[in-house]
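Per your request, structure below.
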């Protein structure tokens, strides 16, 4: 079979048309795959945006909890200082009570040695009576 120019053009034309059909199919397939990738990218982007929103919310919550924790720590520190002050005051009061108890014991012992007013009045009357008797007997 002899290939002349006309035959060659016809063969090339058929080949070109077949190649163009093939490229259209490849381009259409490529386009549909790119479309699927684009849809997947959009879905991934939505997920990332949702995760970003959640992370921002968690960050806000953590910041709030940290602020509250710092406030509680400050309050605990103040209460600890108050408790230390009260402990010192209670220690001082206990020392003072021990001194007071000791003083009361001394006062009790010293009162046992003293005469109360009623006894003193009775003794005074008896002394007066004795002095009167004694002065009469001398006279």
């Amino acid at each position: 079979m002899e290939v002349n120019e006309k035959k060659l053009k016809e063969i090339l034309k058929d080949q070109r048309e077949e190649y163009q059909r093939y490229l259209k199919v490849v381009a259409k397939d490529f386009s549909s795959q790119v479309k699927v990738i684009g849809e997947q990218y959009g879905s991934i982007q939505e997920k990332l945006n949702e995760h970003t929103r959640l992370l921002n919310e968690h960050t806000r919550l953590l910041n709030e909890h940290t602020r509250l924790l710092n406030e509680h720590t400050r309050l605990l520190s103040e209460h600890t200082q108050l408790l230390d002050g009260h402990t010192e005051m209670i220690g001082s009061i206990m020392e003072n009570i021990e001194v007071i108890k000791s003083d009361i014991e001394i006062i009790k012992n010293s009162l046992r040695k003293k005469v109360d007013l009623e006894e003193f009045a009775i003794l005074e009357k008896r002394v007066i009576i004795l002095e009167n008797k004694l002065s009469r007997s001398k006279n």
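The two ends are 194 Å apart (CA to CA).

Regards,
D.
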